[in-house]
Amino acid sequence: SSLSAARLEGKVAIITGANTGIGKETARDLARRGARVIVACRDIAKAEAAASEIRAETGNQQVTVRKLDLADTKSIREFAGKFLAEEKELHILINNAGVMLCPYSKTADGFEMHLGVNHLGHFLLTFLLLERLKQSAPSRIVNVSSLAHHAGRIRFHDLHGEKRYNRGLAYCHSKLANVLFTRELARRLQGTKVTANALHPGSVQSELVRHSFLMMRLWKIFSFFLKTPWEGAQTSIYCAVAEELESVTGQYFSDCQPAYVSPWGRDDETAKKLWSVSCELLGIQWD
Ligand SMILES: NC(=O)c1ccc[n+]([C@@H]2O[C@H](COP(=O)([O-])OP(=O)(O)OC[C@H]3O[C@@H](n4cnc5c(N)ncnc54)[C@H](O)[C@@H]3O)[C@@H](O)[C@H]2O)c1
């Protein structure tokens, strides 16, 4: 297929949370295709180990690690500032990092952890890098969401779960936010050569469920039925690389095919409101 042949020499890609799981396999694939890959991670030591493994295996020396903690807007700004100073171009941004089932906690800026890392952190990162994506167009933004978005709602009256908190639902809400962000972003990028798509990677063996003893057990027992991280990375790779998606935007994929989005994920009014509320929370003006 066109995907297996596609090469990325001269292309620059950022992948968040690429030291483990789906992100690491995505980084490995893009490196194999010749891209310059920035592994954007919280844990530098783990990320260096992953990057050196990928460099050794693919022979691509252009795989570098940069510190990024999505639970801290200061770290996000520092990451973006350094990147923009060092790199002239950015062709692929894969917003992959994520947390799930966290006990109630807040980011450095006081955002509920799932919303803060999975949505607001990536929202700010994308905002800071968008000019460079436009200058390097054609370019792509890929947001790793989840089937779990179907159970999500945007609870504007209690965004940070202060009145009611359920860690499973908090994850679902943040993944719905990924879908709505993608939708509104794609709408705003109409007429540019920057696309934005979201996806569900499948149910994948990984440590995403690390905060729940029960889920860790279930994931182990049913691991035979789960995708391997490599299989789980295929839809991210498809969205980032496939030639036939060059001008496809605002879509949601699963198993490398368009997939069903929940009614809440197709609501333009909610998407717009989430956009302005996110800007307010982050203290940015993005219009
Ligand atoms: N595994 C699944 O079954 C599944 C299903 C649907 C969606 N997803 C999504 O796929 C994506 C990748 O998950 P995975 O399964 O590879 O899990 P994983 O836990 O292996 O990877 C998540 C990555 O995000 C990073 N991360 C977490 N908090 C961060 C922070 N504050 N700053 C920077 N990085 C941070 C982690 O360090 C890790 O590298 C997530 O967005 C997840 O929601 C996974």
UniProtKB/TrEMBL annotation:
EC number: 1.1.1.300
Domain of life of the source: Eukaryota
Broad class of enzyme this protein falls into: oxidoreductase
SUPFAM superfamilies xrefs: NAD(P)-binding Rossmann-fold domains (SSF51735)
Record-linked InterPro entries: NAD(P)-bd_dom_sf, SDR_fam
Catalytic activity from the UniProt record: all-trans-retinol + NADP(+) = all-trans-retinal + NADPH + H(+)
GO terms assigned for molecular function: all-trans-retinol dehydrogenase (NADP+) activity
Keywords for the protein's UniProt record, in alphabetical order: Lipid metabolism, NADP, Oxidoreductase
Keyword Lipid metabolism: yes
Cross-referenced Pfam families: adh_short (PF00106)
Pathway field: Cofactor metabolism; retinol metabolism
Record PANTHER family: PHOSPHATIDYLINOSITOL-GLYCAN BIOSYNTHESIS CLASS F PROTEIN-RELATED, RETINOL DEHYDROGENASE 12
NCBIfam families tied to this protein: PRK06197.1 (NF004846)
Family per similarity comment: Belongs to the short-chain dehydrogenases/reductases (SDR) family.
Name of protein: NADP-retinol dehydrogenase
Record organism: Athene cunicularia
